[in-house]
Write a structure and sequence with these properties.
A hairpin with a 2-residue loop joins strand 4 and strand 5. The N terminus is likely disordered. 32% of the residues are buried. Helix 8 packs across helix 10 and helix 10 runs antiparallel to helix 11. This protein starts with 19 loop residues before the first helix and ends with a helix. By secondary structure, the protein is an alpha/beta fold. The chain is globular and about 65 Å long.
Length: 323
């Protein structure tokens, strides 16, 4: 596959960028000062290359992109060009010393992200800068061309967005390996207690029972689903549906009203209405209000389940709003 979109012109106006050398010098001074003062937020070299999945995309890519450009390498085990490009990008990420983070996404395990970025073939490389997705190139390419593209990305991030990257602590070793633990479970008694609490409308008791399971086994899918459902039911307990819907209709930008109305929509079986309401709220708001609506939407996804086609459609709608 021939590389394409190697130039970032058309994405940003590089002709308007001046004094690039001076800006890079200032950025380097800022990075050096951060490292000298103890490296607050400094990452180990191993932290410059990370594996990212759909569940952690907002945290590991969107949020990180507000402090450092995140380059995304979409790859797969069966893709031969990916095996050539991946190690090169990893080496360049280490060389860049914190000016960008490389996020590797296995498309076989994260097909939703592949669809959201409109990827038709791999390898495909994107960047996310300050929450904005930028296509870099698709297919393998000569190292020099890739270097030039990444240099443009770094320059744009510094001069147009003020992103100077993250400090790197060369002596840090990443997270220490943890001792092997025995497999968790079984949790039949705790899960049964949670179900009984739900049946008795003791939502606080159900929440605690599910949390007890997750404290020992964070990946327990039954407890995660049950917790999301119990928390939803607890939130709408005692709520006046008529007043909530009246408030939401009168104030489309009132995040709290829209969030509560979405909870009621979901409890009433109006799944698509709940999702659409929160996607619109994300679109209409900003800052903390926008984040609150986005987080509640992700929580409602947990209630329905990631494999549900309504969740898939809503994730795509959310991505369009965010990007």
């Amino acid at each position: 596959m021939q590389p394409r979109n190697m130039s970032m012109s058309g994405v940003v106006d590089l002709a308007a960028v001046k004094a690039a050398g001076e800006a890079r010098q200032k950025a380097e001074q800022a990075r050096a000062e951060a490292a000298r003062q103890g490296g607050g937020g400094a990452v180990p070299p191993a932290g410059l290359v990370i594996d990212v999945d759909e569940a952690g995309f907002e945290r590991d890519v969107l949020q990180r992109s507000t402090e450092v450009p995140v380059v995304i390498d979409f790859w797969a085990e069966w893709c031969e060009p990916c095996k050539q490009l991946g190690p090169l990008l990893e080496r360049l990420a280490v060389e860049a010393n914190g000016r960008f983070i490389l996020a590797k996404v296995d498309v076989d395990a994260n097909q939703m992200l592949m669809q959201q970025f409109g990827i038709q073939g791999i390898p495909a490389v994107f960047a996310v800068v300050a929450g904005q997705a930028l296509p870099l190139f698709q297919g393998a390419a000569p190292e020099q061309q890739i270097r030039e593209t990444l240099a443009q990305l770094i320059q744009v991030a510094e001069e147009r967005f003020g992103l100077t990257g993250v400090a790197v602590d060369p002596d840090a070793q990443g997270a220490p390996a943890e001792a092997a633990e025995p497999p968790p479970g079984p949790y039949d008694a705790l899960l049964e207690a949670a179900v009984l609490a739900l049946d008795a409308n003791d939502f606080a008791g159900a929440v605690q029972a599910y949390k007890n399971v997750l404290a020992d086994d964070p990946a327990n899918s039954e407890a995660k689903l049950g917790l999301a459902q119990a928390e939803l039911l607890a939130r709408v307990q005692g709520v006046d549906p008529g007043q909530v819907r009246k408030d939401a209709a009168a104030n489309p930008a009132d995040v709290r009203a829209q969030i509560t109305a979405a909870d009621l929509d979901l409890v009433g079986g109006h799944v698509e209405d709940a999702f659409a309401r929160l996607v619109d709220t994300v679109r209409l708001t900003a800052g903390e209000d926008r984040e609150a609506a986005r987080v509640r939407l992700l929580e409602l996804f947990e209630v329905i389940g990631a494999d549900d086609p309504r969740v898939t459609a809503a994730r795509s709608a959310l991505a369009r709003v965010l990007f």
